Amino acid sequence: MAANGTRPLTRIQQKNTIAILEAALDVFSAKGFRGATVDQIAKAAGLSKPNLLYYFPSKEAIHQTLLAGLLDTWLAPLRAIDPHGNPTEEILTYARRKLEMSREMPRESRLFANEVLQGASNLETVLKGELKPLVDEKAEIIAGWVAEGKLAQVHPYHLIFSIWALTQHYADFDVQVRTVLPESEAGDPFEEATRHIDTMFRKLLAV
Predict the structure, then answer these.
(1) What per-residue confidence (pLDDT) applies to 164?
(2) 0.90 cut: is pTM over it?
(3) Domains (ranges, CATH) in the chain?
């Protein structure tokens, strides 16, 4: 269906819709929702403002479409934690997946970070309706592993927050990371970051 839900998209309309969403991801991730404008998105997409508004009636509509499209991808690594798996390896795998997402999807990470920093008004339904129940579920699993003596005494929620902070930092503060690192590592900080995070959490979780 078209962005306005009225009719199937032609090939050109599909191309323009993708161009708009790609441009919007660039603009929103750099400027946040409040700082972004329809004019900026249209220019980045190579379209006129009236042409863009044919596909999406407002900046809010573009933003909501982006967030909805990214949500499943963003939450997938957390959903993948298996209560029947090896506890340490399940958590380490989650951390590695989150770090890999920072490597492959830095704009998406900054999109969510900017939205949260600005009060998350466009994410409130997601945070309360999807993220919190999922985190509650996984925190209960982690607490169970701790109670069974399979993990060290860690606070499940703060463990998850720590993974978010350590992994998303490499996307949200990419310029700082690459500026501060030695030149030999700045080109690709993720290989060493993976080793560091793996070692740190393995020691933290060890019984």
Answers:
(1) 96
(2) no
(3) 11-57 (1.10.10.60), 63-205 (1.10.357.10)
